[in-house]
Specification:
Blueprint lengths: L1 E8 L3 E8 L14 H4 L2 E2 L2 E2 L2 E2 L10 H12 L16 E7 L9 H16 L8 E7 L4 E6 L1 H6 L2 H16 L3 H25 L16 H23 L1
Parallel strand pairs: 5-6, 6-7
Antiparallel strand pairs: 1-2, 3-4, 7-8
Helix pairs in contact: 2-6, 5-6
Amino acid sequence: MRLEFSIPLLLLGTLSVCLALPWVAEEYPNPMVNPNKCGSNIDGETLWLCDPDSVLGTDTSSVLSTVKDVNLNANCVCNCTESPDVGYVVGVAVAEFITSQHDDQTASLEAFSQTVRENWFETSSCDDKILLLMVKNDSQIHLALGSRINEILPSEILDNIDRDIEPLLEASKYTEALELTLRQLDLAISERVGVYATGTDSTGMTTEEPPEPDNLVWGILGVIAIMSILIFHYWIKY
């Protein structure tokens, strides 16, 4: 959201000033509805990225390519029997300022990102949509995760991502920070999906419940028990 106005100057003529105002979550644009406002088009294709304040500069092609690649190759995380080729979806929202809805800035980021995520993505039985919100004024990237993604991603993985991107954000390397977040998030989800599929984690340890004994084992144990009872009665009788 921007306000444009002109300031007359005695020597320099008229200077046009462009002022970025804090975004309200409900008014933040959807890249699929307003691709021109978001700058979300690459090679004629609209992607899940919105940067209405041009925080990333004029060249957003590298981030758009990463968003495209991650979504194109995203793993299925639920309802995979019915739709094995349908993966999770990640979107990126970038802003210079956002409105503070809470005294705590983290709570404001969480509320803003969750509202935008809900506005962007349709509600479905598989809540596997992710929104990355990067706010320049706060030098933070906040993740709003669908319930299914929350189930499979341990909090320590998210903490590790935060730690890795912190130096990039402090150096105002916003493009690199977003790309690293997208790549690490995709890698983490792929690994966790592999854990659920194979029953082993990265160390080779099993993550499944121990298998129940089959019917043959129970049958053998039953025969042994019966024979033991018969032998015991025979021994007492004779």
